[in-house]
Amino acid sequence: MQDTILELKDVSVYQKDNLVLNNISLEIKKGEFVYLIGKTGSGKSSFMKTLYGDLALKEGTGNIVDINLKTMQEKDIPFLRRKLGIVFQDFKLLPDRTINNNLLFVLKATGWKDRTKMDTKIEEVLDKVGMKTKGFKFPHELSGGEQQRIAIARALLNDPELILADEPTGNLDPQTSVEVMKVLQDINKAGRTILMATHDYALILKYPSKTLKCDDNKVFEVVQRAV
Ligand SMILES: Nc1ncnc2c1ncn2[C@@H]1O[C@H](COP(=O)(O)OP(=O)(O)OP(=O)(O)O)[C@@H](O)[C@H]1O
Question: What are the residue boundaries of the structural domains of the chain, listed by start?
């Protein structure tokens, strides 16, 4: 299991009683950058939600960052989330506090106590996304691309073994999308595993990588044609 970050066998994903995805078997290894593509409504978000414990795994077996999704209980979900970094399309920053305080809030909520260590960590993650000088600002004082970089910094706070990014460039213009993508690429080059759901084929062409597709209730790997 050492090099395997995610392994699913015969997994089915349901929304209420509706079958969204069927018979998913796949593996993601440490260090990979994997895209998840598919039409609107094909099940990308439902797939991601199963991985971060928002949808229970009812059929099949799954292991993610050494946690068994099948036997995991409600009380184990915070532990799972701490081993994952999750990035959403709409950033989800707290509007009533500065960037530094957004990050501090997450550290405190995940058990950090030492203020000096917290400040050092915040500086480190802001530096990784090129936002070291913006910590004093409020979210609404930043552009969409900057807010997404902060959301990526937030995802890095607890050194996650896997980053799940659900349409991280969905609200950004093409140029800003490329800038955010460069940040994700750098993070991946530094050794972190990333699974990114996206509609953005231009990004995939610019940064080709292993690609999974949701279609017709299935998830399968697609081979990219050379361009
Ligand atoms: N909370 C819910 N309750 C019931 N059905 C849902 C719920 N969320 C999604 N679905 C259904 O599950 C299917 C898959 O939706 P999902 O959001 O996973 O697709 P998606 O590929 O992420 O779409 P998009 O690209 O638009 O975000 C759709 O048919 C959708 O209507």
Answer: 4-94+162-222
The pLDDT tens digits for 34-61 are 999 999 999 999 999 999 999 999 999 9
pLDDT in tens, 89-105: 999 999 999 999 999 99
Mean pLDDT of the chain: 94
Distance 91 CA to ligand 1 centre (A): 19
Which residue's C-alpha comes closest to atom 25 of ligand 1? 40
Q: Give distance in angstroms: CA of 26 to centre of ligand 1.
A: 21
The answer to whether 146 and 140 are in contact (CB under 8 A) is no
Mutate to test the pocket of ligand 1, among 46, 47, 199 (most ligand atoms within 8 A of CB): 46
CA 173 to CA 186: how far, in whole Å? 20
Spatial CA neighbour of 177 closest among 199, 153, 208, 209: 199
62 within ligand 1 shell (Cβ under 6 A): no
pLDDT grade for 80, boundaries at 50, 70 and 90: very high
- 41 Cβ inside 6 Å of ligand 1: yes
CATH 3.90.79.10 given to domain 4-94+162-222: no
DSSP-derived secondary structure for 74-103 = GGGHHHHHHHEEEEETT----TTS-HHHHH
pLDDT in tens, 22-32: 999 999 999 99
